Amino acid sequence: MTQPPTPHPDTQWPRWEVFKQDAPGRPHQAVGSVHAGDPQHALVTARNVFVRRPAAVSLWTVREADILTATPEELGTRPEVLDTPGEAGTYHVGLKRTHKRSMTFVDLVGTVEASGPGDALRQAREAHPDALTWLVFPESGVVRTDEDPGTVESWFAPAKDKTYKQQQYYGVIGRHIGELKREGLMPGRAKEGVQE
Amino acid sequence: MTQPQLVQPGETAEQHAAFEARIGRGEKIEPGDWMPAEYRRQLIRMISQHAHSEVVGMLPEGEWITRAPTLKRKTILIAKVQDEAGHGQYLYHAAETLGISREEMLDALLSGRAKYSSIFNYPTQSWADVGMIGWLVDGAAIKNQTMLAGCSYGPYSRAMVRICSEETFHHKQGKEMIVAYAGGTPEQRQMAQDALNRWWWPALMMLGPHDADSPNTGALAGWGIKLKTNDEVRQEFINEHAPELLEAGLTIPDPDLHQDAEGNWKHGPINWDEFWAVVKGQQGLNRERLGARREAHEDGAWVREALEAYAARQVGQAAD
Amino acid sequence: MTATEQQAAGTLSGPLRAALIEKLTALADDEIILAHRDGEWTGHAPILEEDIALANIAQDELGHAGLYLELRRALDGSDADQLAFFRDAADYRSARFVELPKGDWAFTMVRQFLFDTYEALWLDAARTSTYAPLAEVAEKAFREEKFHLQHTALWVERLALGTGESRRRTQAALDELWPYAAQLFQPVPGEAELVAARIVPDLDKLRGSWESFVLPHLTGKCGLTLPDAPADAGAGRDTHTEHLAPLLAEMQSVARAVPNAEVW
């Protein structure tokens, strides 16, 4: 939403943010985005891109243009973000809570009833003042996978059988690194300023 | 350690100091946060180059999908090249959060304005090259990626954490292949040795120029984008791979390679002229690689248009 | 090979065993050749996301080939890679439908749609096979085919209803592929006995279900026209297109360069 319009026609299709749930009872997490033509295509594409490996039980996709995010610093300099207009209704709230290294961005933590995206963001900030990023989008903008066992089996379960993509599949090849280290063939850590 | 030369018009030294303090405290910078224009520019340059490298990197190995010698190897290779598409996809996403579109980045790549890792301009000459690329080229890439997973820009760091978790498989499948061939028939052993002869030096060079010749390192280090120097990463790479290659019974094509008093494996002089010739596209397959990507892009134009037209019609019908 | 597979293999009479070997080979060969064609797209698809999508399909199809050949191994001790990489075109049992070159994106999607529907229906029916190892394999592979079908049905619809050009290309793909599709429903020698023993689904019945699924999608939802085509599949699976031999020459080149290799 903060992005400037592209200067020429874009042939890469719109961008959809992808939220993946790893297991029942876990939050949906923002894992990245896909470029796709329409809602149904976005969902299928999200599965192809983000469930090449386990684990997932549910996917949501939301059009980039329907998402509003802000950081505390941003609200300090641009408080007008809290007035962003839009349709009233139920909004999902996502939070980033830690600077720790992670492959996901925000976790979805629940919904609020809001008069628009700006209001939803304001409520998210009031309820979670310590968050590092707040993200909101309307329930009406969500495309989600069915929760019936058949869909979960065909969309998500097969990835578990693709063991050849897991490094554990290959085990230890040749001698163990520890052995090479003990014999002094592999130093523990590179020395700095190493160029001779 | 404010870097005054990087303070651009409209920016203040105080803003820079506050920004660097945030990075110093281990905070991640997120898309909406204030950041120096030069930080944004450097990130876009690095991330998009990195994404291009993944996408162009699909080609040299992809050529062998149709020739993989077992059903298992074929499946593994398709999964690996697929991951490279996925990694390009994650990285373009990270760059998109900085306000550049994938369209613009692809334009820059296809028109030859953007760079990508020159390692992918070397030809793959035998099936063993596929294994050697996995072991050495991906092994070198992992060293870099592990470092970048700790970088200060949130979206880049997240993409790298995801990539690292997948990339280890690339390294392992390559190593497994080469170790097996090194202990295989005489023809297979020769194939593995030839592949090592071809890829050893390019793998060392892909980690970038020596620190003294690397123009961007200082600024990138100060902003927590690049946490180690090229030479440090290169040393880590050699220390891990040299003993393992020797253990597999292969000969590393560097007569000067030796361990120093600390146990570090020291390489002989690198032929940087060759490196720069390949980087500048004077040597190698730059033209072919870009040609293949351009062809895919152009051949796919009608497909992308079709989906847009379909979507527009759906929206139109919904409005009726 | 599991104990169940071994045990089940032991219960088959000689002619049934021979027919099942023939059938499993045909099933696996279709998957090997189709996956090869799909694999040719990796790195060359219209958009990054679809490189990834088609590579998923190719991996799944190769996986299914492996499952079928594992069942064959329980019957005659044959090795999957020996079969895939050291048989000449004459000994392959792939349908001509899967041998055709990959064509454009419309051709790939229409072929995959027609094949995925056939395979999903076949696997669905094979889940109740009296040959337990096959029922198990079908259960596993069926899940993946269901997803493929969603993906390719979606694409065929979008291409057919997209632009004038995409519609023209989709119709051309259907015109070319439709006559070849009949061969998917052609039984292999001895298949009638396998059907009678309820080891494999009846292809005649399957064709009915297949048509009642693909016809409404193609001609109804997508507004495409079915070409006139003989319902007869023509020659058997020992007769190939001219495209198979060069495909195999490329596919088998590395494996055959070191024929005595113990490990690849």
From TrEMBL, chain A:
This is Phenylacetic acid degradation protein.
From TrEMBL, chain B:
It comes from the Bacteria. InterPro entries: Aromatic_CoA_ox/epox, Ferritin-like, Ferritin-like_SF, PaaA, PaaA_PaaC. It holds the Pfam family PaaA_PaaC. Gene3D superfamilies: 1.20.1260.10. NCBIfam families: PA_CoA_Oxy1. This is 1,2-phenylacetyl-CoA epoxidase subunit A. It comes from Deinococcus rhizophilus.
Automatic annotation (TrEMBL), chain C:
Keywords: Oxidoreductase. GO terms for molecular function: phenylacetyl-CoA 1,2-epoxidase activity. Its EC number is 1.14.13.149. SUPFAM superfamilies: Ferritin-like. InterPro entries: Aromatic_CoA_ox/epox, Ferritin-like, Ferritin-like_SF, PaaA_PaaC, PaaC. It is an enzyme of class 1 (oxidoreductase). Pfam families: PaaA_PaaC. This is Phenylacetate-CoA oxygenase subunit PaaC. It comes from Deinococcus rhizophilus. The gene is paaC.
